[in-house]
Specification:
Helices cover 46% and strands 13% of the residues. A five-stranded parallel sheet has the order 2-3-4-1-5, with helices on both faces.
Length: 230
């Protein structure tokens, strides 16, 4: 993963990293919910969180839920177990999950044991992007696993749109009885941060015409956003 350049999110990133450090220090489970409108920067913030967690010595798994292109039930979580240069679960152990795929309760129990073992070696961070699109098996796992692993340093970081809220509402409701849940809401970036982002994309300071475009309301700007990549 290339280094993440994050603009205008130092407060939000600080809140997330503080919650993660607390979980590692207290050897307790935690959940962090990043919410915001589409395109607000949730994925960029999540990538920065994953990068920082990895640098700090945590074992990190990253998955992504899809609205339409769902590979298989449970894919966001299962892929997180094998993501990155230091997968949470080795290949042979992961292959052993196949025999439990039709037995969801036992599958989740086995994953719980694997994550508990991993957390005994180093703090664990499981990040799921666009959790609002999570399939039924992933939702079941996200309701069950945080509570089962409450006594281990496993931090769950989920991004979600405010609507639909069904998945995040049910996951946090299940988690709040067992672990600390931190909510971080992302609002619009400041104009200066938006210009910095434009410069990152363009490789040069934006022209005055582009600056004017960036200052327009998002609804007006959306129809002409291609000019940033022209």
């Amino acid at each position: 993963m290339s280094p993440v350049v994050l603009r205008g999110r130092s407060d939000e990133l600080g809140a997330v990293l503080s919650a993660m450090r607390r979980a590692a220090r207290t050897r307790a489970g935690a959940m962090i919910i990043l919410t915001g409108e589409p395109g607000i920067g949730k994925t960029a913030l999540l990538r920065a969180v994953v990068e920082q967690a990895s640098r700090s010595g945590s074992m990190v798994g990253l998955g992504h839920a899809e609205e339409i292109d769902q590979i298989a039930p449970g894919a966001p979580l299962l892929l997180a177990l094998r993501s990155g240069p230091r997968p949470l679960v080795d290949g042979s152990a992961f292959a052993g999950l196949a025999s439990l795929y039709d037995q969801q309760l036992w599958l989740v129990e086995r994953i719980s044991g694997m994550l508990e073992d991993a957390a005994g070696r180093a703090p664990v961070v499981i990040a799921i992007d666009d959790a609002h699109w999570a399939d039924r098996l992933t939702r079941f796992a996200l309701r069950v696993l945080p509570g089962r692993l409450a006594g281990s340093p496993v931090t769950w970081v989920l991004t979600s749109r405010p609507v639909p809220a069904e998945v995040i509402d049910e996951v946090t409701a299940a988690a709040e009885d067992a672990i600390r849940v931190t909510r971080v809401a992302l609002g619009p970036l400041a104009p200066a941060d938006i210009e910095d982002l434009a410069e990152d994309r363009l490789g040069a300071p934006p022209s005055e015409a582009i600056r004017e475009l960036l200052r327009e309301p998002a609804v007006t700007r959306s129809g002409r956003s291609r000019c940033l990549t022209a």
